[in-house]
Write a structure and sequence with these properties.
There is one protein chain. By secondary structure, this protein is an alpha/beta fold. It folds into two domains: 83 residues, Rossmann fold (3-Layer(aba) Sandwich); 144 residues, 3-Layer(aba) Sandwich (Rossmann fold), CATH 3.40.50. Helix content is 37%, strand content 20%. Strands 2-1-3-4 form a four-stranded parallel β-sheet, covered by helices on one side. The protein has a two-stranded antiparallel ribbon with strand order 5-8. Strands 6-7 form a two-stranded antiparallel sheet. Strand 3, helix 3 and strand 4 form a beta-alpha-beta unit. The protein is globular and about 60 Å long. It starts with a helix and ends in a 5-residue tail after the last helix.
Length: 233
């Protein structure tokens, strides 16, 4: 929705297909999916293409039919935004492949993949700073920024956070932008670990590393990061 708001303007026609519509966006044509009467993502997407939109948002790509229509829309000059349920940005490519999308179509239309998780934000009124334990520093390489004694914050609890130690949530994200090297990997049917490695070499910060940076900044805890982002940590 943040992306749609930034793209929305009086001279740009934005149409969405959603299930459900979670927020009403002024100036955006939002359509609710209703399979009971034949209004699914694929059928609505076909109808939308006849309305000459500039930007199309598909709430979720769930099957090959929806994926193919979204790709055709992108190939004909429309900006298409959508979501896919995966564990990481690189895993999105594998997921679309598994649906049956051809590699040459992926490289032709893919412009960026944003993956994110929400973690609890520490309450700034009561969080407690402590030097990071040596085993945590070694395990997660917390001294990578050059600080030999990194500090981590821990939840305490106060009236402002209702004694939970946390107040609000924080988005931890990674953004994969296809490069020629990544496109070659897609064509060669490389797995998601190879694609992610190439993206990191090209400058991408993984969600887990972004989470560690947030923990070092005192915004969340290491426990929140490992719970929400990496289960094998």
């Amino acid at each position: 929705y943040t992306g749609l708001l930034s793209l929305n303007s009086v001279d740009r026609k934005v149409v969405t297909v959603e299930d459900p519509i979670e927020y009403q966006l002024p100036g955006v044509n939002q359509i609710q999916v209703k399979p009971q009467i034949g209004l699914n993502f694929a059928s609505l997407l076909r109808s939308i293409l006849r309305q000459d939109p500039d930007v199309i948002m598909v709430g979720e790509i769930r099957d090959i039919e929806t994926a193919q229509i979204a790709v055709q829309a992108a190939l004909t000059g429309h900006l298409v935004l959508s979501t896919v349920h995966t564990n990481s940005a690189a895993a999105t490519i594998s997921r679309l492949r598994d649906m049956g999308l051809e590699d040459y179509l992926l490289t032709a239309v893919l412009r960026g993949i944003l993956a994110q998780r929400l973690v609890r934000r520490l309450c700034h009124a009561c969080r407690r700073p402590e030097p990071a334990a040596p085993e945590l520093v070694a395990r997660f390489r917390l001294d990578r920024g050059g600080d030999p004694a990194p500090v981590l914050h821990h939840p305490v609890g106060c009236a402002q956070c209702r004694n939970t130690g946390y107040r609000g949530r924080l988005a931890i994200a990674e953004f994969l932008q296809p490069t020629p090297a990544i496109e070659r990997l897609i064509f060669s049917r490389a797995d998601q670990s190879e694609i992610e490695r190439a993206a990191v070499e090209g400058g991408m910060v993984t969600m887990f590393d972004a989470g560690l940076e947030a923990a070092l900044a005192g915004e969340t805890t290491i426990e929140e990061v490992t719970r929400s982002i990496r289960t094998d940590a």
